Amino acid sequence: MRIKLSVVVGLSAALVGVAACASQPPVTTAQQGLVADGLLLGEPCAPPCWQGLVPGASTLEDIDYVLSTSPYVARGSVYRDSYGDILSVLWRPRWQSPADNRFVVRGKLLQDIQMYVEPDVTIGQVVDRWGPPEKFQAGRSMHPEPVYIAVDLFYRGLGMMVELELSADDPELTREEEIVRVHYFQPAPLDEVLAGLVWGKGAVLGDDQVKALQHWLEGWEDWKGYGHVELTYQFGAE
Known about the structure:
Blueprint: H1 5-9, H2 29-32, H3 36-41, H4 60-69, E1 79-83, E2 86-91, E3 101-106, E4 109-116, H5 123-130, E5 135-140, E6 148-155, E7 160-167, E8 172-173, E9 181-184, H6 190-199, H7 207-217, E10 221-222, E11 227-228
Antiparallel strand pairs: 1-2, 2-3, 3-4, 4-9, 5-6, 5-10, 6-7, 7-9, 8-11
């Protein structure tokens, strides 16, 4: 089994979408920059910080305050879901989002921020702003249809991963490809990040867990730039 960002998103219990309440004011251009402003401009703070929330430092109370006071959060969209020692705080922005954004909390601290990015934010803009990623992985989606190639790009120093979805017929990564989702976490080497997302930061791993982690790491390669994308892993591969 390989691990990718969309798999990490699904590690907790199955989620039920919550529609935002009606009778809200129209979404403005400023509100559409909810994720992009931080990602590209560093405003009001740069990755891995978002709206003042920082993985490894912010508490559940901090999260509740930001979501309850932010004009960008759709009313009635915030809810919680727990699985083991994982608490997920889910919400939707005012602009139309394909699914819920999520804050993952372990040990009373924010561990992981997972957010969908507004349309028209491209990988070229991210690379221009922050430079090339250290690592990438690419694999065919697990969903029966529509099939696509999921590409994940890892920025160690920023505590960030970005995810794209490419055509399965001829996966070509260009500057114009749009970012689908971003993850923010405490900056750390890739193995520590993956282990933390699955088992919790600082967890002591058993032999089977170490073996699984090593297997996942085999699916990551050095960034090769733009162009045709070769798959680096197959789901279900041993």
